[in-house]
Amino acid sequence: MAPVLRLSGITKRFGPLTANDDISLELWRGEVLALLGENGAGKSTLVSILFGHYVPDAGTIEAFGAPLPPGDPAAALKAGIGMVHQHFTLADNLSVLDNVMLGTEPLWRPSSRRMEARARLVATGARFGLRVDPDARVGTLSVGQRQRAEILKALYRDARVLILDEPTAVLTPQESESLFATLQQLVAQGLSLIFISHKLDEVLRVSDRIAVLRGGKLVAMLPASQADRASLAETMVGRAIPKPVAKPHAAGAIACEIAGVTIRGELESVSLTLTAGEITAIAGVSGNGQQALADLLCGLRAPEAGTVLLAGRTMDADPHAWIAAGVAHIPEDRHSVGVIGEFPLWEN
Predict the structure, then answer these.
(1) Is 101 helix (H, G, I), strand (E, B) or coil?
(2) Of 169, 281, 299, 313, which is most buried, counting CB atoms within 10 Å of its CB?
(3) 53, HSE (Cβ side, Cα atoms, 13 Å)
(4) By CB neighbour count within 10 A (0-12 exposed, 13-18 middle, 19+ buried), where does 4 fall?
(5) What is the extent of the structural domain holding 273?
(6) Tens place of pLDDT for every residue, the chain, 348 residues?
């Protein structure tokens, strides 16, 4: 049996930087191949070449036994290769159905086959356990729902190979569990997956084989059943990593305190005290007030009732004042909320 994908001698340079250095690997039907490596190891560059976003400087790709033209995403889609990007590529102002249909119909067709497409989308979702309202506007969906829409978009185009680039980077633990269940269904029905991550527990859990990249080179290829966290971490960075040891320490003074805070429909009489030198975790299923609480604690929203104190001082809904007071906020969706993509790093 031939592999569904074969990459041979893939090399890609960006000026003096060699992002991929003579990488060769294969993917088989019904297999989950994890692509593991630190940030900057070359994982995203390699799959961007596979999907046609980049043209390699050397090397070839075969999909289902046929050569895959370089630098041609349409050819990759036609060959049955789908990709779910780390930063979603959906139009927020359109419905799930509209996003899925984009690019699937010729512009000269006088009418759109929406009823047929809707029925097919619903059937695909039911088949793979990916239920999303086709009429929901993408901008109103949670991060996990958007990811399901991205996967559906690829499956709607009859993808037989699915590339998932850091799929759990923006998911809650509950959403990650739902994703893993979906991946099991995809593999059970014959799809092949490339799972890109640097989270060792996830890689060991979902993959059949693990390919490790370091500095643009393929430094290891091994069955997941023969791997463990320590050996993978050492292979990723090229040296032994000592296990961190937590040292007990006393909690400090109260740094932030909220009392009886209410935001109608999201928070109801919430009280919380944060002390210096500690980590406080907020757990819960998505949509149960975590976002409102985060917005409250960085000055984006004001409570309808209750008080918010920072170092004993009452704080208003003024992000500038919170920043000046030493509070930083890393948002759930860092791509669309945390940075301005058109600005350089120094300006952000």
Answers:
(1) helix
(2) 299
(3) 10
(4) buried
(5) 254-338
(6) 789 999 999 999 999 999 999 999 999 999 999 999 988 899 989 999 999 999 999 999 999 999 999 999 999 999 999 888 777 778 888 899 988 888 776 655 555 678 888 888 888 888 887 788 888 998 888 877 888 888 888 888 888 999 988 888 767 777 788 888 888 888 988 899 999 987 888 889 999 999 999 999 999 999 999 999 989 999 998 888 888 888 888 888 999 999 999 999 899 999 999 999 889 998 877 678 888 999 999 999 999 999 999 999 999 999 999 999 999 998 877 777 888 888 998 998
The verdict on 262 and 232 lying in the same domain is no
- 191 and 292 fall within a common domain: no
Rounded to an integer, what distance in angstroms lies between the CA atom of residue 131 and that of residue 152? 9
In a domain, 242, yes or no: no
pTM over 0.70: yes
In whole angstroms, give the CA distance from residue 91 to residue 25.
34
